[in-house]
Amino acid sequence: MAGLHVRSLLVTGANRGIGLGLVQHFLRMPKPPQWIFAGCRDPKGQRAQELQNLASKHPNIIIIPLEVANPASIKAAAAQVGEHLGGSGLNILINNAGIVKLNALDAETLEDMSEVYTTNTIGPLLMGQAFLPLLKKAAQGSPGSGLSCSRAAIINLSSQGGSISSLLTWEIAQAPSYRCSKAALNMLSKCQSLAYKEHGILCVALHPGWVQTDMGRSLGLPPPVTLDDSVSPAHVSHGASHIPFRFLLLPSSSTSSSPGSWQHVCQGQHNWSGTTEGFCPLETWTGSQS
Ligand SMILES: NC(=O)c1ccc[n+]([C@@H]2O[C@H](COP(=O)([O-])OP(=O)(O)OC[C@H]3O[C@@H](n4cnc5c(N)ncnc54)[C@H](OP(=O)(O)O)[C@@H]3O)[C@@H](O)[C@H]2O)c1
Fold first, then answer.
1. What is the DSSP secondary structure assignment for residue 141, as one 8-state letter?
2. Which domains does the chain have, with CATH numbers?
3. Ligand 1 mean position, distance from CA 260 (Å)
4. How far is the CA of 215 from the centre of ligand 1 (A)?
5. Whose CA is nearest to atom 5 of ligand 1?
6. Of all protein residues, whose CA lies closest to atom 17 belonging to ligand 1?
7. Phi–psi pair at 35, nearest 5 degrees
8. Cα of 45 to ligand 1 centre, how many Å?
9. DSSP string computed for 13-70
């Protein structure tokens, strides 16, 4: 955490849940980013009230209207962020916005499969494309040649639910549309990591834990991980024992070109590293780029 020096970042779906938690987390950093762009699809709506209140107290929060399932909205957001940043780039893009539909396999529909895939997978793809020029600019403007969040990064909020080898909560919710969208997001993250490495952009997919948010609670059982535990590395030692990985956004040093320089939280013995399927822990993704 102490090693992270970020001038600007953007979080999609920043008005509630993990997105809002991340914005609050970045505000609490010893050296908060100069600009926190908070993407929100309905900035004037009731569900954006808490974010609006936060922004009124913190002028470094810029609320950006952003519907990730709408290419025109994404383009407009990229233009607005670019204009705001003047000549400088964007250090971190966090593709957090996501939806879940809790259908059983036999009841899954074309409509729900399409809607969830569009939001959870195509959204991050288009976001990566639209913000690539700004991310490249940040990477080019940063000293050093390693890959790190301090330089330029795309962070995709995936889910263990998308893992083919470790199917989190299958007994509680089958949700094939969600699982397929996150499995595809993992592959997208791998593709981005391979394509954008040459531009100096770190790309990772992360599982935040089963977290106490609207989405986490929608499964009908109390989620074990608090929002603070999920977003804040300071809380990592107090986590729920059966959650194998939670995300740590931050490299332990500002030049994280080696896999070992990333921290991760492993509280189980799930051996996912080296697999090509489903969710892979942080060091696998960073390792694939180094
Ligand atoms: N919570 C968990 O246990 C858990 C576990 C694994 C992975 N995740 C992943 O973590 C991410 C955040 O989850 P969460 O628990 O914070 O979910 P959440 O509480 O349901 O919040 C979802 C956020 O995404 C936004 N959003 C949804 N569709 C959007 C769209 N088309 N365009 C723009 N914004 C959109 C929502 O905005 P509105 O307010 O406008 O709806 C909201 O801000 C998701 O990608 C989720 O899949 C969560």
1. H
2. 8-289 (3.40.50.720)
3. 30
4. 7
5. 210
6. 215
7. -130, 125
8. 16
9. STTSHHHHHHHHHHHHSSS--SEEEEEES-TTSGGGHHHHHHHHH-TTEEEEE--TT-
Pocket around ligand 1: residues whose beta carbon is below 6 Å from it?
Answer: 12-13, 15-19, 41-42, 47, 66-69, 96-99, 119, 157, 159, 207-208, 210-211, 213-216, 223
Structural contact between residues 11 and 94, judged by C-beta atoms closer than 8 angstroms: yes
Helix (H, G, I), strand (E, B) or coil at 93: strand
Model confidence over 79-121: pLDDT tens digits?
Answer: 999 999 999 999 999 999 999 999 999 999 999 999 999 999 9
**CA 15 to ligand 1 centroid distance, Å:** 9
Least Cα distance to 100 among 13, 227, 40, 229 occurs for 13
Indicate which residue's Cα is closest to atom 39 of ligand 1: 47
pLDDT digits (tens, 9 = 90+) for 188-219: 998 998 899 999 998 888 888 889 999 999 99
Residue ranges in the chain assigned as alpha helix (H): 17-28, 49-57, 71-85, 110-117, 123-141, 176-196, 214-217, 227-231, 282-289
Is the whole-model pTM more than 0.85? yes
